[in-house]
Amino acid sequence: MVFFPFVNLILRPTLALAATGSPDLPLREAIFPLLVSAVTGMSLTALADLIVQVSGNDMSNDSDLYRCNYLMSLTDLTRSEKWKRFTGKLVDRGRAVNLPRLLSFALFGLCLKGIFQFFFYSFWLPRISNGSTILSLAFDSLGYVPLVYYPFYFMLTGKIQYNRGLLDSLRAYKKDMVRLCTASIMFWLPIQVVNFTFTPDLWRNLVVLCAAFIWTIVLSILTQ
């Protein structure tokens, strides 16, 4: 019973005010998309890193398995001996998952990608760019990603996985900054052009999170 007064008197107007500048945003409109974004961000980010951990480099190094993917039907592929050997390796690796690393990705997905980006892409960025796709792309690619996204990622994962200090984590980011930002622009630019042009503001981050499932696999491989 205490929860509902808390939601109505504190949480709803706080979220609404942070998002739109008005404390009168309807409860469902203020909270439901945020919850979807938070749960999706945490689960997809953790799942992407888990896939990288249990698969290792076997799929990319097995050229025969790649040829099977392209030349065989899905049914034939799953019945092949190569596929059975590959999935057997996944089961063995699944018993030795790096839990601190998985936790760091889950928290990264929840805090930054799920919650912060919900407000950034749905409310703050449209205001800053005044609805312009070009300005949105510029603020996103040249501002948010190199100055917020990557520093937060390196500081969080560095602390949880390696107990690094914040400055040491930022130095590690500085070494890879050009490579990561270049890869990010190449991957995200066409996706964000479509997203900023056609997606309603309130659901932009959900599009980002779905595409980020693939990007998180790339990021996990590049930085771990």
TrEMBL record:
It holds the Pfam family Mpv17_PMP22. Keywords: Membrane, Signal, Transmembrane, Transmembrane helix. This is Protein Mpv17. It comes from the Eukaryota. It is found in: Membrane. The lineage of its organism: Eukaryota, Sar, Stramenopiles, Ochrophyta, Bolidophyceae. The chain crosses the membrane at residues 34-52, 102-122, 134-156, 177-196, 202-222. It is a multi-pass membrane protein. Coiled coil: none annotated. InterPro entries: Mpv17_PMP22. Residues 1-18 form the signal peptide. Belongs to the peroxisomal membrane protein PXMP2/4 family. It comes from Triparma columacea. GO terms for cellular component: cytoplasm; membrane.
